[in-house]
Each structure stands twice: as C-alpha cells, then as structure tokens.
Amino acid sequence: MLGAPPSTTAGQPPDAADAVPPLTTAAGEWPSYGGDAGNTRYSPLDQIDASNFERLEIAWRFRTDNFGPAPEFKLEGTPVMAGGVVYATAGTRRAVVALDAATGELLWMHREDEGARAAASPRRLSGRGLAYWANGEEARILYVTIGFRLVALDARTGARVADFGTAGAVDLKATAVVGDGRPIDLATGPIGTNAAPTVAGDVVIVGGTFADGAAPRTHNNVKGLVQAFDVRTGERLWTFRTVPRPGEFGADTWLADSWGSNGNNGVWTQISADPELGIAYLPVETPTGDYYGGHRPGDNLFAESLVAVDLATGERRWHFQLVHHPLWGFDMASPPILADITVDGRAIKAVAQPGKQAFLYVFDRVTGEPVWPIEERPVPQGDVPGEWYSPTQPFPTRPPAYDRQGAAVDDLIDFTPELRAEAVELVSRYRMGPIFTPPVVSRPEGPIATLGLGAGSGGTNWPGGGYDPETNVLYVPSRTAFYSWELIPSPGPDVSDMRYVKGTERRGVGHGGLRDLNVRGLPLVKPPYGRLSAIDLDRGDLLWQVPHGATPERVARHPALAGLDIPRTGQPCTHLVGPLVTATLVVLGECDFRPTPAGRGAMLRAYDKATGDAVGAVFLPAPQSGSPMTYLAGGRQHIVLAIGGRGHSGEYVALRLPS
Fold first, then answer.
1. Rounded CA gap, 332 and 353, in Å?
2. Interval 143-153 mean pLDDT
3. What is the chain's mean pLDDT, rounded?
4. How far apart are CA 264 and CA 218, in angstroms?
5. Whole-prediction pTM value?
C-alpha cells in the first residue's frame, strides 16, 4: 500500500527495539529533511552521474499555488520520501500533501484553517518541510502549522492521529513566556517556525522563532525555546530556554538583569540530532536587536551559539558561543552537520556548523571541544552611545574561511580602473575594516554605515551545506556581498522601543539596505558573487572552490563591460540554494532567472565532487527555491526540488533519466 510503513522484520514483535531497520538514503529513501537527522544531505545513489546528468528530463511537476487562499511564489520546502510516497508542505496555508513518488499523483491532502492565529504568526507560507516516523505498525507525518501547533498525521490517510496530544495536535505556545515569565497569548503571541521538526528515535524536537526585522521591540519580548515531545503520545518531554533565568547556567552573561527585558534567541533553522549518542544540536540565532545591544550588556548566552542538549531530558551537555554579544546578525542560520572524521589518526564524532560569516566551526560532538583550536582574538571596538562591546571574538584556525570577510578596497569591483575609482569614491563615507568591525550611528557627513561581507547578504544562509561520509568532505555554498550596519535613533515606540534601530528599516530599503549601493548598476563587490566550496574535514583544508551559477545578465550585458572577457561570476543569491551530495556528484540549482535555450528559467547544475569540475546542467522552469533530495521509485533514481519565485508559482519538480 502506498504510504504504508516498512514491514516488520520476520520473527520479531513489532515493538522490538530492532524490529524495523531505520529508513536510510542508502535504501533509496529520503526519510528526513536533510536526508538524515545529521543533515548530511547525502545519498549513495549512483544511477545519475556525470555521463548522463544532461539527459535528465522532467518526470512530474506538482504546483502548489492552489493550496491556500492566495498564490504562493516562494516555496522553500524539501520533501521526504518513505514507502514509495513523497510527503511535503505546500501553499500559503501550509497544507501537507502525499504524492506517488513515481508519478506525482496526489494521494491525500491535509489542511488546517487557523484563522486569526495564523494571521498573527511571524512565520507564514509553506514552511520548509515536515518529519516522518514509523515503527513497523504505523507511520506518522509530523509538521508545525503556521499558528505554531505540532500536528501528527496518519501517513496512510492524512488524518490526524487521535491519541497524539489533543485530537492529534499539541499547542507549541503553551510553554512560551514573555519577559520575566508571563504566558503569551495563545492566539496572538508572536512565535512560530518555518523549519521542519526533527525526529530522533521516538522524540520529535521543534524550535521557535520570531518576526524578522531590524527594528524590533526589545522590552518584554517572547523568550526563545526548543521543545521535545514523545512522538507516540505528544507528551512534552522537555523545554530548553535559550535565554537563561537567574540561577541557570549563563544568566550572568546578561548584565544588569537584562535577561528579563530582552528576549528571543530563537532557533529558526533545522535542528540536528544523534540518536545513538542521545544528543540534539541547537543552532541559536541573534538576540533581540540584531545590531544594537545596549539594552542587553554582556555576552548574552545562548545567542549565536551551538548548544548540545540531552535528547531525553533537554539538559545542556555543552555549548560554544560563536559570537559574543552579537551585533552583526551572524545568527546560526543553517543546520549543524554531523560527521564521523579522522584527524591525525584519531576517530572523532564531529559536528560542523557553517555560518553567515563564512567560518566553518568544527567540534567533537560528544564533548564540545573544538577539533582544531578556536582562538579568542581582539576585535575593533565601537562608539555607539550606550553599547557594550566584547573585547574579543572566537576565530577558528582551521578550516580557513571559505568566503571573504570584513571589507577593504581590494574587495571592490575591479573590472576596469574607472569602475574601481567610482567604487572607492562611493565607499569613502563608509567605515570599513576586518570582520567584527562594529555598527555605527549613521551621520550625513560620514560614516554613513559600517560595510562588511556576510551577515544577511552573504556567507551561508538557511539551506546550509552537505557532507559525504565516504570521503569526509563537506560541501557548502556561499555568497560574497556587502552588507551595511547603520543605526539611527528609534523613530518612536510605534516603530520600536529600542534606543537605536537599523537605519534602512526607516527608509524602507529592507534587510541589508544596499539596493542603492552599486556602481552603475553593477555589484559593488568584485566577483565571484557566489561559490561552492569543498572542505576536507579530516585535514581542515579547502580542497577546491568554484563560482556557482551563470553570470547575471545585468553583468554580462552591461555596456561598461563591452569587449571585456568576463569569467563566470557565479550568482549573488547562491547562499539561498542548498546542495545534494550523491555517490559522485554535488547537485544544486541556480537561484535567479536568466535566458536559456528553452526560454526564461534557470539551470540545475552538477559538479564532480572530487574536483569541482562542472559536469552537467539541465533547464528548470524556474530557479531553485528549496534544497534538492533524491530517492528510488520503480527502480529509477529521481531528483526532486522546489522551484519558484518572481511571479512563478511554487512547485515541486521531479527529474529522472529517460526510460
């Protein structure tokens, strides 16, 4: 039966611990968002390789714009596949759909109409995926609604599981608190998530996050939390609060009792877990006020930290704060990647965390010890009134940064001397410096802002990387682009109760604020704008880097560059596409429309994972908007990914070789 769980092993009772072999990508499944609970995005399938990648054709397409009250143009989901069925979230109401893996036929659909509760959510649309669990007797789909409920569905029918929580759902707002401990309003309390739940054994883990923006309310804000539940009953097993209270570990890093008046520290990206070790790994974001921290003096644990907690109890095992007293928005945006590596002859169970600052932080995932030294180094200090600055920040010694950091004249556009001169003049009123150069209060005479590479504009964002457990090589896409940090006094309590907010929010420019900072319409930074890097985790070395994606049309056809030989620049939105790693390939798509032989669209590209050589590309109707996955159906390998954006309705597209 389509959607049925794997059969029970002969001769053993269904509830035996080893009755049902775990679903794996090696068996041709894709049982979780990242392929496995360690978010490796790896499958050893090898039917599709360099010799035939360009022969891929569309097997089926599934549009999602009818799953909700309005069309959706940004579908970020990655499906799961188990038992011959693809499960995914879709549409502006975050419906759940089950599709025949071979044909794309709709088998069932589940939807929740949450009314005002969904309308008040800070995280809307389709979300990024869901979780699958089976025990030999039954199979379940678990997902988080827009209104922040955890719902369990029968994988065969799509109906709610009656004995999970209350009629198949758990209210994730029930333990959320405001300020110093007051419960939030269950309808309007501003907390939600776009991430998929993480299933590890019989435990399902859910993070939570808040409204995105640089002019937030800071006082009496909702506190960040991560919750775990029994996957069978919905019983809440534990709650980990990312802003510690007095008497808890880390509370002393919030000076002047600022833990109570500030909040957030959300966990908005994918959580990873190691069921054998009994540990979950929580990537925590920036605290309230991404760029101004004067209301929260101190290091502010567990902001911008990787926190390992006990899977059974939620107790902290270890943590590492990647940025002290965060001021740059370098929140942990992508899933931690679990890897078993060998360093100098020593086997290490490791966890690797990519970042917006283009560092890869690698730890022993049992003890939290850095695999290679991470040094505390002095960093520039700022002059924003009322701000508190950390004198040092952690710098990994290995691997080297896989994208550019900070800002210097050498980072500016250099196609011609004239363009470079214009760029130098343009940035003369900005503050530039190494990574961790602090934000400034914007002044008309200068500095207007601090310029740097990374944060919201660069490095690695939510799609994250992938890892090959056969070679111990990690693959990570990244973007090179300038970001501005400029502060202005808060316009007033109707906008924010913070002392300073990001100036671009006032101007309506949006996150990043550099739409008008270019040279004759060309990017201010010199290329490559997007790249794919391969990192040897046994040695901590960069193996290769290649620009990813075609040169944007606005660059390739710019009149100022006429007659110049412009090498492939890669695309400026590469940090918004995620990779798939297979037996021989790294596969990821372009993230922007461009002219192609088949019309307007984008390419899905394949690279030799050993060398970085481009070995194939196929046309897609629209750019990649969710990370690809792969599975076997009918004995044939499929690659499925979400596409959409810029007026193209979100859809899932399945590719396979001709029969």
1. 8
2. 97
3. 92
4. 9
5. 0.95
